[in-house]
Amino acid sequence: MEESTFQLLSYGRGTLDALQRADQQSVVTQCRLAMWHMFVHKPDVAKEHLQKASELSPNTSLLLTMTTQHCHCEIPEALQSCLAILETDPNDLWVAKVGQLFAFYLGKLEDMTRIARISVGAHKDNHYAYGMLAFALEEEGKMEEAEEAGKKALEMAKGQKDPWALHALAHVFYNRLQFREGIELLFKEKESWKHCNSFMHTHTWWHYALFLLDVDQPLEFISSIFDEHVWSEKHCCQTQINAASLLLRLEMRGVDVHERVKDIAKCMKECSSEWFQEAQHDLLISWVLGTCKLIDGEDSDGSFFEKLMKDSELYTGDEDRRELYIKCASAMWQYGQQNYTEACELFRQCDLAKVYTLGASLEQASVFAETYVHSLVHTEEYDKAREAMKKFIGKDRIERTGHWLRVLKTIYTKTNQARVKKAEQKLKCLLDEYNTIKM
Q: Looking at 8-12, 139-143, 173-177, 301-305, which range is the least confident one?
């Protein structure tokens, strides 16, 4: 396999180096350099490589068209160009991987699976193709098929690293509430993501921390994982997403996160050129800066929302998704300031079941519905909070998670004393079970 493709698929740290060592007079190399710089939020550098690719190519190819669309943030069109390329060249794993990312950012789950199946058909002996398939199937909710594909990928890897397949299985176990299995898998394989790029390294630790949260491990221990691993490479958009998302969950469980939030805010401001590139990043920035306003007693960056409304071009022309993006960001801003009534009103205007269409996995998207539930509890709208828990968290997850059983107990304490004891009994049995899990 060509080196830059290997680095891309294995989430290595050498993708850019491999591309810089490749033939710089190649249109393919220049297109890949352009796409790479778009993914790391350096659009000006990306357009320089796009210009070089255009100068090298006397005729416009589908690859050049796709790259041009990517550089101009025309992601729906870039996805269609990707699919057209794969129809004629199903062997191109670089295009397949990039195309899957386009589909993910658009919430086009069926296209994610379609691309992965094309790659598996062309590469029946390639574990990376099966890892791509596993994640796509998981996002579609096809857990059994996803588990089969993920395990096949790891088996085929035979000692090689396939962090994406491992990551897909972590998603499967989390969604199936198989927390013990997820912890054991990630702990056993933790050396396999040790040398991954900043996104995959911190993101896999983020998954590990989510499992630990749900089996009620000590919050001090999980906070140490945040400090040592999740927030270990700070000046990276994807790392900031992992860090803010975990910190928000810790805050909802009673941890004082103010000093850590201020550190994230400092890095987010230093990387303001990355604002309005990924919706999930913007939603979490909104909570971080809202919390900083609460801490500092002043508007530390009031220009953020003016810029969000004025300058963000995300989802222009897609009214439904743009409204979801703006309303959800506004709700997170209000929640950060502890303006819970305002946050609830804004969340009610959001279709929270569709947040994944803003480029977030099911686990990533769930934190916004969880924030809504906590806002309702803070405003003492207990019946609505219980309804929201049932709708967005789900009965099975509530009964398998110590945190949500505690929230339910709080609600019953205020609304239905007869059910408090039952909730307490369920919580005790669950904690007895989880105390047998060894880290």
A: 301-305
Q: How would you class 436 by CB atoms within 10 Å of its CB: exposed for 0-12, middle for 13-18, buried for 19 or more?
A: exposed
Q: Which of 204, 148, 200, 194 is nearest to 11 (CA)?
A: 200
Q: At 368, phi and psi to the nearest 5?
A: -75, -35
Q: What pLDDT does 193 receive?
A: 86
SS3 content of the chain, % helix, strand, coil (to 5): 75, 0, 25
* Residue listed under structure tokens 């791509």: 132
Evaluate whether 321 touches 75 at the Cβ level (below 8 Å): no
Q: In angstroms, rounded to a whole number, what is the distance separating the alpha carbons of residues 81 and 200? A: 27
pLDDT in tens, 135-158: 999 999 999 999 999 999 999 998
Q: What percent of the chain has pLDDT over 70?
A: 97
Given a cut of 80, is residue 275 above it in pLDDT? no
Per-residue pLDDT reduced to its tens digit, 58-83: 777 999 999 999 999 899 999 999 99
**DSSP codes, 68-135:** HHHHTT-HHHHHHHHHHHHHH-TT-HHHHHHHHHHHHHHT-HHHHHHHHHHHHHH-TT-HHHHHHHHH
Token couple for 104: 């993910």
CA distance from start to end of the chain:
37
In sequence order, what DSSP letters do the residues of 178-213 get, joined into one string?
-HHHHHHHHHHTGGGGTTS-HHHHHHHHHHHHHHHH
Structural contact between residues 71 and 43, judged by C-beta atoms closer than 8 angstroms:
yes
CA dihedral 156, 108, 401, 253 (to 10 degrees): 120
> What is the Cα–Cα distance from 128 to 149, expressed in whole angstroms?
10
| C-alpha separations of 433 from 189, 210, 215, 421, 438 in Å | 24, 18, 9, 19, 11
Higher pLDDT, 270 or 292: 292
